[in-house]
Structures are given as C-alpha cells and as structure tokens.
Specification:
Length: 507
C-alpha cells in the first residue's frame, strides 16, 4: 500500500486545514438537528481525553474564525477555549511554497510559539490542529489535560468555524468518575469510547514512568487523528488490534512545527528518551509531506514489530538501539535518517528517493537489514509537483548516501560528516536500485577518510531471487564472500551481536 501525499489531499476535504485570520462575533446558539455529536448530548461515563466530533450530512472545511469553549456545567468556568482565528502554526498547511528565505526564518525557527495554537504533551509544547476535518466529520481536540474525571461539561462551537454563520452548536456530557486501575498493568484505547481511553496519547500519559513488568496498552481498531509524544518512560507495550485496522495519523512536518532544539517536533509519532518500549500491530501515518516522520525514536531497546509506517522525507528517524521485524516503511527519500543501531529482519522499505541517510556514530553499529526488501517507488518527489511543474522531479533510489552536509567554512568538527557510517544488507531483495547502488559519498581527503565506513552487501537479489549484478557498485562498497566472510556474515545476521548484547524478545 503506497500512500500518496500531495497538496491536493489537503484541499480535497479528506484533510481540510485552513490558515487562520481574525475572529467575528458569533450568532445565538442552537443545536443543529442534522449534526451528530460525539460524545452524544447528555452522554455519561466519558473519558476526559476524548476528542469531540461533529458529523454533518455533507463534507466540510474548517474556516479561520470562531471560538470553541468548554465550560464546567456546575460553576460556569471556562475550562478550555480554542480561538480558531489564531493560526494553527507558522505554515498551517505544512507547505512553504512561495515563502522567501527571510519568511522561512521569521515564521519558522524564530517565531514565537504562543503566536500560534499550542498543545503541551508530556511537558513539551507543539503547534497543533485544534480542529481537523475528515470528510463530513470535524474533529476537535481540546488542550491536553483540560478535562478531568467526575465532571459535567457544556460545549459551545461557533458555526463560523465551519462557515455556518446562521447557527452554533451546543451539547453537554459527563466524564466518568475515576481513571482505570493502573495495577492491572493493562488499559484499552478505543476510538468509539468503549475503552479506558479514546486516544493513544491519553493512555501514554496515564502509563507509569516505569514498571517491573511491561505496561500494556491495547488499541482497538479505529482511526486516531492525534499527535503522539512519549517522553522519558519505559517498559510499555503498545499493541494494536490489527496492523491495518488501527491507524494513528496526524499532519505534521518541519514547516508546521519548525525546529526548536530537542526534542524534534515534526513527527506524527515520537518516542523520546525512552527505554524498553514495544510497538506492535498498527499503522502510523504522517499526512503532510516534506520533512515529516511517521515515527521518530530516541531510546534504548525499542522494538518495532509488525508495523506499517507511512511518512515522507526522513519517514523513520532513529537514535539509540532498535530492533524492527516484519514491518513496512514507506517514505519520500532519506526514508531512514539513521543515527541508531537498527537491526531490521524481514522488513520492506519503499522509497521515492534514497532509502537511507546513514549517520552512524563511532563505537556502534548502524543500519543492518537481513532477509528484507528495498523497493524503489518510481514517482516524483511529492513537494516537486506544482502547477508550473506537474511532472515534478524524480531522484535515484540509492540504498544509502553520505554527502558532505554543512558549512564549507569553519572548524572541521562543526561541519564533519559521518566517517563511521555503517549499512549492511544480507540476503536482501531489491527493485529499482541503480547499478552503483550507493552514493553520493563525500570524496576522501585529509579531513575525511573512508577507512571506517561500512557499506556492505551479501547475496543481494532482485525480487525473483536472482543475484544482482554488482560490477558497477560504488567503489566504497564491499561485497561479502560466503566463505571468506562467513564469520562476518553470521555476526551481522545476529541481532544480539549488532545490538551490543541485547537479545530482543518480542512479546
């Protein structure tokens, strides 16, 4: 399954995101008989992390005016307020098209966070989409932690949010009395409200920082439109009911959430400074293009099992130690931005451009693929497709690249490459890979040596299992020999050897 993400998706109503302007006065409220609410009006037993949904009879878009307020039904206090006239982010549609370099700096890295919509997840601020439109449903995400247990709330939504100036929307609901019992070691997430939580983020917020036995979060089939961020926790298993049936997705990238130091804010789903985490049996998708990870992992002993990851540029960014098996990753170039030790077994990587930008640090192993597949997607880079250039631009599907990247002047340590980069393919099937296979790689010179770079292949095949012609491979590539390199091949086929003594156990 290839997910095509273009600007047309944003405008089509499948994902309607409109930049914000000034607010206008709202009309007198009236419940619309043709709109369906979730939670339903006067419903009880609702989890406080529940996103609010309004479903209309026809497709809708989100407009740049109007206010959403949630008030305590007993006291009348406003517990959450979303002013939709405040832009969602510096580039709300995730595109910098038409922006000058000065605009990019002013609206990006140097912008003031509070000038835009902000949601705080586990202590970190992100720009976010407080309202999303999917076909006929508006998804309203209150600020994280705004609602509590044992409360009754009134919701007021200006019709202007949807371009309906003649009516507003009001309804009420009551939250359940108390959170689930953490001592059970397991909670469920269900988008229809039938579980302990309605969002993955709500369950991750509830999970203990660490535990003697892995804390399991089971996610029932459904669509989860949410930005997910796990910060500093350990010993958690996040398991979906089915790989295709559970889809956690969000529109995010480096234009919408520009860099502000660590942690990165551009992934749809991020594990930050974690350990002993397992992700199994669900899909993560980033709905924006550009530098837009499906998943970013910064942690030790992280397992990615039977997952579908659909991102754009840098679709999977890795730090630490990661074991990945029986999973598929789709991206638009530099599809793995690899700082980690990553061992992939029986994985499929599909890439519009280069499969990896391998950035291994000294003293660790890099990207290792065993019994896996590398499939080039022969289509243009999505951001290159414009009205002026409808055919877009294609780039070669090399296995890894290691170009010079940084300022041409200044101390070498401030602009160094990665002279210990490592990527090894063992029994890997490939399709659409150019004859040289790898590159470009920075040329050797006095300050940069190829001596410790490992770009190795053993028994690389086409998709039918026939040996690939290696005669035109990049001069840095080493083709391993079954007899002469038998010990090396055995070691690099062993995750315990690669992962510095950690033997991953998928639960």
């Amino acid at each position: 399954m290839k997910i095509i993400k273009t600007a047309a998706l944003i405008a089509s109503g499948s994902l309607a995101l409109i930049a914000c302007s000034q607010n206008t006065p709202a009309p007198e409220a009236a419940v619309a008989p043709d709109a369906m609410f979730f939670p339903a009006n006067d419903d009880t037993g609702i989890s406080p992390d529940t996103p609010l949904r309004i479903t209309f009879p026809d497709p809708l878009t989100i407009h740049s005016e109007g206010v959403i307020e949630i008030t305590d039904a007993e006291t009348g206090e406003v517990v959450d307020r979303i002013d939709v006239s405040i832009p969602f982010g510096p580039f709300p549609d995730g595109r910098m098209s038409g922006a000058t370099q000065e605009d990019r700096i002013r609206l990006g890295r140097e912008s003031v966070m509070s000038d835009y919509q902000v949601n705080t997840l586990q202590g970190v601020d992100f720009h976010y989409h407080p309202v999303l439109a999917f076909e006929t449903t508006a998804i309203i995400t209150p600020h994280n932690g705004a609602l509590g247990y044992g409360e009754t709330y009134n919701v007021h939504v200006d019709g202007d949010v949807f371009g309906l100036s003649d009516r507003d929307f009001e309804w009420s609901f009551a939250t359940r009395d108390a959170p689930p019992d953490a001592d059970t070691g397991r909670v469920t997430v269900a988008s229809d409200g039938s579980g302990d939580f309605v969002t993955v983020q709500g369950a991750l917020d509830f999970a203990p920082a660490e535990s003697a036995e892995p804390f399991e979060i089971f996610v029932r089939n459904g669509r989860y439109d949410e930005l997910v961020f796990l910060n500093g926790k350990s010993d958690i298993i996040l398991r979906g009911e089915s790989r295709d049936g559970v889809v956690v997705r969000y529109p995010n990238n480096s234009a919408f959430n520009p860099p502000r130091g660590n942690p990165s804010r551009r992934p749809a789903f991020q594990l930050y400074e974690v350990s002993d985490i397992q992700l199994s049996d669900f899909t993560i998708q980033n709905d924006f293009i550009g530098q837009a990870e499906a998943l970013l992992v910064r942690g030790d002993r992280v397992i990615i099992d039977n997952m579908q990851l659909n991102g754009s540029g840098d679709a999977l960014t890795t730090y630490g130690s990661i074991y990945m098996q029986d999973s598929e990753l789709i991206g638009d170039g530099d599809t793995i931005l690899g700082y980690a030790t990553l061992f992939c077994l029986r994985c499929t990587i599909k890439s519009v451009g280069p499969f990896t930008w391998t950035r291994t640090r000294e003293g660790q192993h890099g990207n290792i693929f065993v019994d896996s597949e590398m499939i080039y997607l022969d289509q243009p880079l999505p951001w290159s497709v414009t009205d002026d250039n409808p055919e877009g631009q294609k780039t070669r599907g090399v296995l890894a690249r290691l170009p010079f990247n940084g300022p041409r002047e200044g101390p070498r340590h401030e602009r160094s490459n990665f002279p210990f980069a490592e990527m090894v393919l063992i029994n890997t099937r490939t399709d659409g890979i150019p004859p040289e296979g790898w590159g470009p790689v920075e040329e050797e010179h006095a300050e940069f040596s190829w001596e410790n770079i490992h770009l190795w292949e053993f028994n690389t095949m086409d998709m039918e299992g026939n040996p690939v012609d290696m005669s035109e491979r990049h001069p840095l590539v080493r083709v391993l020999d079954a007899e002469a390199d038998a010990e090396l091949i055995a070691n690099y086929s062993d995750p315990t050897f690669i992962l510095n003594g950690w033997t991953p156990e998928v639960k």
